Amino acid sequence: MTSRLISALPRRVVVVALGLVATLAAACGAPVVSGVSSDFALNRADDGHVVRWNPCAAIHWRLDSRIAPAGALNQVNAALGSLSSATGMTFVYDGTTAYTPQVGTWNLPDSVVVSFGRHSGLPMGSNWLTGAGQIGEGGWSASGTSQANVKIVKGYVVIDTDVYNRSTSGQRTAALLHELGHAVGLNHAALQSEVMYPSIMTTSPTYYAQGDLSGLRAVGRGAGCL
Ligand SMILES: [Zn+2]
Predict the structure, then answer these.
(1) H or E element: which one contains 157?
(2) Tens of pLDDT along 202-221?
(3) How many A from CA of 48 to the centre of ligand 1?
(4) Distance 129 CA to ligand 1 centre (A)
(5) E-assigned strands of 5-85?
(6) Are 204 and 192 spatial neighbours (Cβ–Cβ below 8 Å)?
(7) Of the candidates 133, 132, 143, 209, which has an alpha carbon nearest to the alpha carbon of residue 164?
(8) How far is the CA of 27 from the centre of ligand 1 (A)?
(9) Which of 54, 127, 190, 206 is 20 to 30 A from 36, alpha carbon to alpha carbon?
């Protein structure tokens, strides 16, 4: 049986502190969801189909919490709840692991690993984390027996715990949503109003915005089982 592997491209997010004051124009008590519904980007296989998980199968995941801050599991679970709502996908927690994702290595102990690690070169460092101020990285690996059935089979998120710890609560939320978005197949959006914009700023949304939601629908259960 042949297996085709598509390597995940580098997906990183950098925390940028802008000197801007976020102004929220909330009217009529309705939540403001920013973004533009067309502002999302997908990955496609050589034959053109969208590279995604089978959204109808439960996706099992583990948390590397060795140096994670208190409350990390709750924070990741909250982000996964948003991801589940947006995609219709189910995520099942299998417990902790001691595994740091590294470039080119896909021997993950579960379908998805969310790891709180450190900058490349430090103890528990990930060589995914090389950018100054980079808070995290997320990606996926896809395989199939033919071009037509290539799908994502592994996903990871690795967080730079030091950067995470000095980020605001909103930036932490945005970073988890962002990297998990990569892990289910989204690429970067063009506008700062999406959480999939390449940088997390003080003004970043702390929820999946309009374009993010469109992209997540395109990789989710509404796009059909695989
Ligand atoms: Zn990114």
Answers:
(1) strand 151-160
(2) 999 999 999 999 999 999 99
(3) 22
(4) 12
(5) 12-16, 41-42, 59-64
(6) yes
(7) 133
(8) 31
(9) 54
